[in-house]
Amino acid sequence: MTINVTNPIANLRKSKGYTNEQLSLISGLTELEIAKLENGTLVDPAKLTRLLAAVGVKSV
Question: What pLDDT, on the 0 to 100 scale, is given for residue 47?
């Protein structure tokens, strides 16, 4: 059985039309950090905040 779970971080990046490389340049994060945030192996609130700010999501 296969379960497909969508990745909200990757979906957000793609909806904005960014590649990992482009988002890396905008956010200041490395492409590896972005990939790890997207696949859940990196859970760093500060880096996630930087990534979200780079795609235009404001924190409250």
Answer: 94
* 39 token code pair: 């696949």
Scan for tokens 């996630």, then name that residue: 48
Query: Using CA atoms, how far apart are residues 49 and 2, in angstroms rounded to an integer?
Result: 31
At 29 the pLDDT is 97
Establish how many alpha carbons lie within 13 A of residue 49's alpha carbon, considering only the half-sphere containing its beta carbon. Answer: 5
By three-state DSSP, how is residue 3 classified?
coil
For residue range 3-23, what is the model confidence (pLDDT) as tens digits?
Answer: 656 788 999 999 999 999 999
**DSSP assigned state of 28:** S
Contact 26, 18 (CB under 8 A): yes
The Cα–Cα gap between 49 and 1 comes to 34
